[in-house]
Amino acid sequence: MRDPAGFLLCSLLLVAPHCTEVATQDVQPDPKTPCANWMGGAPGYPGHNGLPGRDGKDGKDGQKGEKGEEGVQGPKGDQGEIGVPGREGPRGFPGYPGQKGEKGEGAFVYRSAFSVGLTERAPHPNVPIRFSKIFYNEQNHYDASTGKFLCSIPGMYYFAYHLTVYLTDVKVSLYKKDKAVIFTYDQFQKNNVDQASGSVLLHLSSGDEVWLQVYGEGDNNGVYADNINDSTFMGFLLYPDLDVH
Predict the structure, then answer these.
(1) Is residue 21 part of a domain?
(2) Average pLDDT rounded to a whole number, residues 4-8
(3) What is the DSSP string of 121-172?
(4) What is the pLDDT at residue 144?
(5) Number of independent structural domains in the chain
C-alpha cells in the first residue's frame, strides 16, 4: 500500500497549475501583490490628509442680482449734535398785515372837547357870549348857562371861533382867567354879511375858564346868527400834562 502523504502531495501538484490558469483567465491579480487574490494580505490604513493647496485666482464678478425686498425699519437713532449755523438766506417778501388786536386794558384816554353855536344876538359888552346851540359837549366841560369852558384836565388846548357879522361892527376877545388873550375886529360893510374869526393854543390848569365876550364901548356887538348863518365857538384838548394820573 502506498504512502497516503505522498499521494496527497502529488494530487496538489497536478491541480495547482490548472487552478492558476483558471484564476489568470478570470481575475488578474494586482501586480503590486506577490500572490494571487486569494492569497492577498489585509487592506492598509488610509494615509494622512495632504497640505491645503494655494488659493486660486479671483474669479470674474457675476451679474448683478435682483433688488431685494425692503427690510424692517430700524429703531430711531440718538439725536445728533447741533450743527454750525448756515449762511443767512435771502430776505423774504413782507407778509400780509395781521388782524387788528383787541383794545388793551388799563389805558385811559383823556378827552375834553366842545363845539357850540349862537342862537341869539350877542349881549352887551364886557359880558361872556352864551353859545346855547350844542354841537358837541359830551364831557360837559362847557357850561351853556354861563358861556364858559371849565378846564378839568390840565394840558394844551386849541380854541377857535367863527362869527357872522351883521348890522354893525364887531370887537371880540377870547378870555382866560379874566384876562383877554386875543382880539378880533371886523368893520361891517352895509348891505353885506361879514365873517370874523380867530384861534389860539393855550395851556390850561385845572379850574381855568375860557370864554368869548364883546369888548370896548359903543355899538360893537354885531355878532349875528339866524337859520342860515351861524356864529360858532369850539375848543379841545390836544394832549394832557405828563403828571396827570
Answers:
(1) no
(2) 58
(3) ---STTSB----EEEE-TT--EETTTTEEE--S-EEEEEEEEEEEEEEEEEE
(4) 94
(5) 1
- What pLDDT, on the 0 to 100 scale, is given for residue 132? 92
Q: Is the pTM of this model over 0.85?
A: no
Tracing cell 379841545 back to the chain, one arrives at 236
Domain of 231, in residue numbers: 113-240
What mean pLDDT comes out for the span 49-58? 83
pLDDT at position 56 is: 80
d(CA 183, CA 168): 17
Whether 209 maps to a domain, the answer reads yes
Instruction: Count Cβ neighbours within 10 Å for each residue of 150-166 and write b for 16 or more, e otherwise.
Output: bbebbbebebebebbbb
Share of the chain residues as helix, strand and coil, in percent rounded to the nearest 5: 10, 30, 60
Handedness of CA 175, 179, 184, 189 (dihedral sign): positive
Contact by Cβ (8 Å): 37, 22: no
With respect to residue 174, please indicate whether it lies within any of the assigned structural domains. Answer: yes
Report the CATH number at residue 157.
2.60.120.40
Q: Is residue 100 part of a domain?
A: no
| Confidence category of residue 245, pLDDT binned at 50, 70, 90 | low
